[in-house]
Design brief:
By secondary structure, the chain is α+β, with helices and mostly antiparallel strands. 67% of the residues lie in helices and 8% in strands.
């Protein structure tokens, strides 16, 4: 109670401190780097990541792109190449004139090489950058190249994808927040009992969101998914805590004459209930930190921090604001849209057997769909972008005109005999889907001694340690075909150089597929175990955690199973994150009802009356909370052009509704069905006798 009284006493200093903290938060948010490259989150111990680092350390090469030039004469292409070469952070541009003077006909090249780099109207340049794929300098270079090239050129490659993704995110993100605020505000105006209090909630939560985003500065950088979703998620998840405080304050206002005394009691009661509620949500987010694909840790830390800050804001900043605005808040109160839920609750309890049957019928197809959805996710981040984006257009042209869907790079020991390299290339070119392998040996053959090759060209493909080869594939990144191809290529490479490495976007994606498949199982298990233990401790029961998690897991199965039946494919990160977010964020609904059910049973009521009262009393809070989460995410899902953001927000919006329905209809039925084992396995319910007070449900 000391804390609650201190909050009330020092409400003005609390508000002043909160407002002052917004200043460094704005600077911290602006200074936090945003990472748009998913491949950066692979474990550093993987060969593909080690190989990328070797490419940078030994060759000074990081990002790589193909540029397709359309309807341009050789001399103009050569001039364009020189301009591109002058762009800051462009390390090398490879084209025909890198080998021979353009006065010499291109047909002198080996026929297969000539055909692969030229069509009737197009020619292709290979560009290496001296900075990594997603570094700001690389993205600036991509923009400058596009500016130089104009509409006759198409820039492909992972850096082009990252550049377009960043530009689109920065354009859309303010609208995400605006939509989430407007729709959450509309939901609260309809469902709460005051016209003014929703604005107070948004001001308080907004300050905590800004503080959360500002303190991300100490993490160094966050992913674009985290940035796009964290504000919306924090608003949706922590709105519950504000609603709890307001309802508690309204109740105490009728008991105490002095509104400050009422607030002190409300803060104390809210703190007790919110801590228990928020721990499960934090546990859900923290479980993401156990992913070896470290983007999960990125989102988990930021969201766990956001929930904790939301709790702090709810019991400090929000009470101070409510007390400051108490008179206008009281004057703008109105009758809530949600009135008595007695008739609805009576019907749920009366026909609980029907809902048990529905539960049994839905569970199996929901789980089958859930398992299938996890197998049908996609990993190619290019699929996240709209079809009119420059990167998507360039990649389509690369595939249509040159039949190139992905490019691999091979690092082989420099001291490997040229003859062995030629043999290796021949073997690699026999692998299904491999168009060709380009190396110094494949271009100049064995007739020209290495000493006669210009040093500027030789240093492009050979370092003190490695020789670099380029391999173009007909197979798309993250497809089963390209993954099988990578396995075959690695087998061949290891025959000639045990330490050789196959790197590039497709090999990295293959590692990502294998990593995240394992992560999904680990994160799911950890989140379920952690939340099971928390509920067991809070409710002092062994059976109740099983029932509550079963209800929410059923909701998750339904939510994540629907994409399979609707013929939709999700981005790979969505099922991993949504399963834990939905479990952590919506199990609160079940805890709220179960806690009231326990209180009623301990108070002597029979099981039907206990479930009836628990449902009727908790339903308004569950509806407001669920609709708040739905409103905050649904608008973003409809608006976003980035599929990974759209998919995750749609899953969260639908998950809120499905969880709400499951808790309202299925949980009461399971509580009635399992009343006896619940009493037998719950510490403070074991003394309840089978013959309880005979209260009928009215």
């Amino acid at each position: 109670m000391r804390f609650a009284k201190a909050v009330v006493k020092y409400r003005i200093p609390i508000l002043i401190i909160a407002i002052l903290l917004m200043i460094p938060s704005v600077f911290g948010m602006a200074a936090t780097r945003i990472n748009y490259d998913m491949l950066d989150y692979l474990p550093s111990s993987m060969d593909t990541v080690i190989g990328q680092n070797e490419l940078m350390d030994d060759f000074g090469k990081g990002a790589f792109s193909f540029i397709i030039v359309e309807d341009m004469k050789p001399k103009d292409v050569s001039a364009l190449k020189s301009k591109i070469q002058d762009v800051e952070h462009v390390e090398t541009v490879l084209w025909y004139d890198s080998l021979l003077d353009i006065s010499i006909p291109m047909e002198i090249l080996p026929e297969n090489i000539y055909k692969e780099f030229n069509t009737d109207n197009d020619t292709m340049l290979a560009v290496f950058f001296d900075t990594a794929t997603s570094e700001d300098e690389t993205m600036d270079a991509i923009r400058q190249i596009r500016s130089i090239c104009g509409k006759q050129c198409y820039v492909s490659g992972m850096s082009a994808l990252v550049t377009d993704l960043k530009d689109l995110c920065e354009k859309e993100e303010p609208i995400y927040v605006g939509l989430a605020v407007l729709l959450a505000l509309a939901a609260m105006l309809l469902l709460l009992d005051s016209w003014l209090v929703p604005f107070v909630f948004l001001a308080s939560i907004g300050m905590m969101i800004l503080l959360n985003m500002g303190t991300n500065y100490f993490l160094g950088e966050i992913s674009y998914v985290t940035k796009a979703l964290s504000a919306v998620l924090q608003l949706a998840v922590t709105m519950d805590y504000s609603i709890f405080l307001w309802h508690s304050y309204s109740e105490q206002r009728e008991i105490f004459e002095n509104h400050t005394d009422a607030m002190a009691v409300a803060v104390q009661k809210t703190l007790t209930s919110v801590i228990g509620s928020s721990v499960t949500t934090v546990a859900g987010f923290i479980s993401l930190c156990f992913m070896t694909f470290t983007m999960g840790r990125d989102l988990g830390i930021v969201m766990a921090k956001g929930v904790l800050l939301g709790v702090i804001g709810c019991v400090t900043v929000l009470p101070a604001m409510i007390l400051l605005l108490d008179k206008p808040l009281q004057k703008t109160k109105h009758k809530p849209l949600i009135s008595s839920m007695k008739h609805f609750s009576h019907g749920v309890v009366k026909y609980f057997v029907v809902f048990l049957v529905i539960f049994a019928i839905v569970l199996i197809p929901a789980y089958i769909g859930y398992a299938k959805t996890n197998d049908e996710v996609y990993y190619d981040m290019g699929e996240c972008l709209p079809e009119d984006m420059d990167y998507v257009i360039a990649n389509k042209k690369l595939a249509d005109d040159f039949n190139i869907a992905s490019t691999h790079m091979v690092l082989i020991d420099r001291n490997t005999a040229p003859r062995d390299i030629r043999h290796m290339i021949k073997e690699m070119e026999q692998v299904d889907g491999v168009k060709y392998v380009i190396s110094m040996e494949s271009i100049i053959g064995c007739r020209i001694p290495e000493a006669m090759i210009p040093e500027s060209l030789l240093s492009t493909v050979k370092s003190e340690k490695w020789e670099l080869l380029l391999l173009n594939s007909e197979y798309r990144v993250a497809s089963d075909d390209v993954n099988a191809q990578i396995n075959a290529l690695n087998d061949i490479l290891k025959k000639y150089d045990e330490g050789g490495m196959l790197i590039g976007e497709a090999p990295c994606m293959k590692d990502m597929i294998e990593t995240t498949a394992h992560d999904f199982q680990v994160v799911n298990a950890i989140s379920i175990i952690a939340i099971f233990l928390i509920i067991a401790i809070v409710e002092k029961s062994f059976t109740l955690p099983i029932i509550l998690i079963a209800v929410i897991e059923t909701a998750i199965f339904i939510n994540l199973g629907l994409p399979h039946y609707l013929g939709q494919s999700l981005p790979f990160i969505a099922p991993i994150c949504i399963s834990t977010i939905q479990l952590g964020a919506t199990v609160d609904y079940a805890i709220l009802m179960t806690t009231r059910y326990k209180a009623e049973r301990i108070g002597g009521n029979d099981k039907k009356h206990a479930v009836y009262v628990a449902l009727a009393s908790s339903l308004p809070s569950i509806l407001v909370s669920g609709m708040g989460l739905f409103a905050a995410t649904f608008g973003v899902a409809l608006y976003s052009k980035i599929d990974i953001i759209r998919s995750m927000c749609m899953l969260m919006a639908r998950g809120a509704i499905v969880s709400m329905i499951c808790v309202v209809l299925i949980l009461p039925a399971l509580l009635l069905l399992c009343d006896a084992p619940i009493r037998a396995t719950t510490l403070d319910m074991r003394k309840i006798q089978n013959k309880c007070k005979e209260d009928s449900v009215k």
